[in-house]
């Protein structure tokens, strides 16, 4: 639920910033007339038609709007809202589900008193479902969730029962979703939730679709209602919250109606709860301190919290892969700790930039170090023990090292690290495509978070989706649209509907199919990893950056090959990708490296 909702008065909108005009016909690029999707047109309290019956006089209808989607889509959208409250509130991380009647074989929908004979009776008293009824409706599902705030120092979690009801009445079908907070008075309600005892979302759908269409009326209606605490009245803030909630449901339902499918999937490697709990702890521990002592000219709100998010992901990842450092054990856990996992091998943060990520990981007890081509002012703000692990150095892979002058041996690093050290490549630019190659040469696992696209000689380029050795493109990232093979030769052909002919600046269907430079870079790094024997995993990180995809290589490689054999494999791969001999490539890399040393540092 969002209490901070800001709108401005605009032409064609009401005072709450919502379109009040009906759908209009617009001309497409081929002069065909298409219909806009139905607009969100809420009716305020004075004009709405309340549901036919309410449980008691404390229920107050707040907003109502026409609804173009049927009951099954409404139920699907509401279930998503129940499981993902962060969709409607920036103050919330997630919902932890304690009970779901769909997983309870003993659930009896005719029983409205809890605990029943099912699983609910085994819950703690504060987590047991709170009963509720809706006149003439049948209870179909009950979920108990706990809303987890983004900032636990300011807001406390809230336990809430969510009931789903259904009622058939002649030619109408009613679906009701009711939120029942486990709070007994308005003063105890957290900031992020309206101070009301219950919230109901009703969806009324006429089953006489043909007659409705003929009369040009809407087939469905959605209404949002509050049940007030005794002695309280509705506030402007609660009305704004109701508007945002109903508008979000309408938007998501309309998307479902038009066949929307989610393309970006989060939390495929680390569960959301584990990541967010660790992030919250780290944010409280490091966020304010690092932001207040920020000495770069860039925004600390982005860089600090981005690195905290990456650190939280790595800590949870390493807990799955390695023995946890003894610093993280409690006394009881230390006694019981018997792990078959290998010890943590250390990490190296290549292109570490401002050093914040290295600092956090070191402070959390994970040994390692980081290096970058240019020192950062931020390094001097860290303790001496951390500064000792931040080095100014240029990476020149050892297959190039014979081409460099001996005068630079102290500045250049050959890319051979401690055995099996975990390699972190966070927006490392020139080092991004080299990340799986370095991991291969060091028998290491790696994580790459790409940003800008560079080739294996360090020059800017647009990466292909795959290496030249892999003819069939690998599985695409969720945000990448596949380009059919036959389209490759058609890219330069003139479109039948170019802007000069149509006056439209809309992208053509073929243009929409072209993947972005960032998406092809991610695919290219993944392809390099596959060619070197990794079984890469991919995820989209929960960090404040549009460059938030990661490629993880922790499985599939073998340490049996000799170092010389691996060098030959990497050498052949580079020469094939760049179509030049290794001496010329090495010379270009070193030239680019020297230029990089002279560039001014950035905030990263």
Automatic annotation (TrEMBL):
Keyword Mitochondrion: no
Keywords for this protein: Cytoplasm, Methyltransferase, S-adenosyl-L-methionine, Transferase, tRNA processing
Top EC group: transferase
Main location: cytoplasm
Subcellular location: Cytoplasm
Listed Basic and acidic residues bias regions: 27-47, 493-511
GO biological process: tRNA methylation
EC identifiers of the protein: 2.1.1.211
Pfam families: AdoMet_MTase
GO cellular component, one term: cytoplasm
GO molecular function: tRNA(Ser) (uridine(44)-2'-O-)-methyltransferase activity
Catalytic activity annotation: uridine(44) in tRNA(Ser) + S-adenosyl-L-methionine = 2'-O-methyluridine(44) in tRNA(Ser) + S-adenosyl-L-homocysteine + H(+)
Region annotated Disordered, chain positions: 12-51, 474-511
Purpose of the protein: Adenosyl-L-methionine (AdoMet)-dependent tRNA (uracil-O(2)-)-methyltransferase.
Family: Belongs to the TRM44 family.
Protein name per the record: tRNA (uracil-O(2)-)-methyltransferase
Species this chain originates from: Passalora fulva
Taxonomic placement: Eukaryota, Fungi, Dikarya, Ascomycota, Pezizomycotina
